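ESCALATION

Customer reports they have been waiting on this structure for their group meeting. Please prioritize. Original submission:
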Amino acid sequence: WEALNQQDLGTDYVVFAHLLDKDGKVIAQHDGAPNNSTEPTSAWVAGQIVTDPHTLTFLEGAAYTGPAALEIGIYDPRTFQRLTLPDGQDHIILPMTVTVD
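Update from on-call: job pushed to the front of the queue and completed.
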């Protein structure tokens, strides 16, 4: 992540990472505070780069193999309201393909 905020965010947001099958169904996921809870968003300053690894856990019964996409976003853990991008979307699909074997 790159912090673009010009003032304190005032909230410690949570990141979600979803692995989606070819039909857009979530097959694996992880939610957590940035960088294993060591980089709370309330402390981010403009220009800061935050590395944020997530280990995804496959959902029970997810027996999918094939191409998959990675979807990420941020939400307020108190309300579960997702933050939106300038285009109105509440998530990003990363420009890459993952192969699930």
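Sent to customer with the following note: The chain has one helix and six strands.
Escalation resolved.
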